[in-house]
Amino acid sequence: MAFRIGVDIGGTFTDFVLVNDGSGVASTYKQLTTPHDPSEAVIAGVLQITAAAGINLSDVTAIVHGTTLVTNAIIERRGCRTGMLVTKGFKDSLDIGRESRYDLYDLRLEYPEPLVTRQRRIEVDERMLHDGTILSAIDVAAVMQDLAALVEAEAVEAIAVCLLHSYVNPAHEIALRDAIQSRFPNLYVSLSSEGYPVIREYERWTTTTLNAYVQPLVDRYLNRLELALSSAGFAGGLFIMSSSGGTLVPATARQFPSRLLESGPAAGILMSAYHGGVLGIDHLLAFDMGGTTAKGAFVVGTRPLKKYELEAARVHEFKRGSGLVINLPVIDMIEIGAGGGSISRVDERGLIRVGPRSAGAKPGPVAYGRGGEEPTLTDANFTLGYLNPEFFLGGRMRIDREAAAAAISKTVGEPLDLDTARAAWGIHEIINEDVAGAFRTHASERGIDSRSCAMIAFGGSGPLHAVRVARKLRIKRVVLPPAAGVMSAFGMLVSPLSFEAVRSHLLELDALTREIWDTQIQILRTEVSEVLLTAGVAETDITFSCVLDMRYQGQGYEIKVSLDLPASDALLDQLQAGFEKQYTRQFGLVLKDRPIEIASWRLEASAPSPAQGFFRVNSYVPGEAKPKAHRMAYEPDVGDFVPHAVYDRYSLPPGVRISGPALVEELESTTVIGSAASASVDDHFNLVVEI
For the domain bounded by 78-214, which CATH number is listed? Predict the structure, then answer.
């Protein structure tokens, strides 16, 4: 029998899923994250879930792992001391940025500090022209002398090599890399011509500095993880989730750790798309809410929307331009600091605020009894009766509901002269509105009417809030998959191996010939195929998808145009029609008198998905569709506590219908069904709520 394990490290909990690929039966496990070293929770959980299943770790053929390591390193500035080699005259490009203000009226405007401080940047006397011609040759020996002084003075561990126009001709960057590896073999080196070779040096260089900044951290983490797994008897393949919805082998993750920036959240969105495809849902909103953050992404035609630029470490959460601009393929999602661990307080205006600061796994919510003193959203949900103190994590975790209520009363209730229940409901409802507001903004920016979507909700906190959030967005149907609390870990197990490469090559569309097309695509095809072939994927199993960055000549920014491969003989007509369609959708017109040009070429290689059909969670043993108990819980439409029927989700058979108000409990989460909603269980054991 072949077994695989999916692992998703969150801010509060680390989730585990063990799947028997022969039978499709899955088991789940959840435990607190170990922030000081996330690999400790990974090893402990992997051993626990295999022991519970009665198998050895040697029986597991693959472990697929998603992590917030890179995200946290940037936010908390826990990366390594990084140096930078940059073309002379461009030393301050990281500080100058895009020379734009994200808020015209804020006189105290702040931007995130670059990941490489100014004193760690070395100017390199070289110059490459825009067409790749060498104007000024590089003196590698002189650069090595300057680098030696920097290494001695600043003790840098990694170097980002960022030279002008290296995306056209990388010769100078390659020469520097070879010299660094020869003289300083312990230094990590990232080249801007290797990681993301596209036009616009600021974006290319911030991405390269990010890669260098976290490379030692990721390398050491993977070394610890691989060593610990090997010592425990694991001999299978380790795979790492990337931001774009595919997985990478450790060697690729070590080379391009920047691609792990949104590693964990991407898996849950991909699993939502997988569910949508099986259920025949063409338009859906994937809603993931865990202990620290809430994420939302739209899936159209069973494919999550993607983007190729994101901002990390924003100074202002919702203000575009206030973060570090990173050019990477990533699933297009919105993320806010709203989760079970989000800390509540009364602000200077006398209003309840919840998040973005989180109690995390340590000390955690007050109810956990681990030293937390500030009330969180989870404390509010215990106080409202939505969570069962006797059944949290299946009863494995001791909960102090009274302490949670007391903290809410002291911090929120008393300052606002509210009773404890109303204060707790205020915390709960503010999060609902914050999430709904973020999703409204995301939908309007993407030109999507959320009312036409179904919602798939997951994460430890997602089912608690999904119905109320959907109601605010006027979404009529909410699907809660089995084991929704660990669905991101399930997503790891449906994610294919994939890798995407991009090259900037400016070309007017009318000048495009079949020969030029084949040459450009073949360069990219060789690059992306090599990554998958090295990982053991058969060449005949690799599929390719192409996206071109196109614009009218003279414009400064591009739009993305997808093209099916292999390209047909009507290539030019297809590209022009595709560009005009996207341009019209975005801007409402086309410019017939302007020539069109291709700026960048993107190609993604993917292996087949490792899973087919639905997993069957072993905890589900259908029985009688009767409540196991009744519990007093807060009903907002009444404004008071009312009896809620409490159901054991694992015993609900397909076809059963439940009327609200009701609570459906499972190990990883609880679904709250209000009085204005009803639910049913479909043939795949999904809980489907109709509002």
Answer: 3.40.50
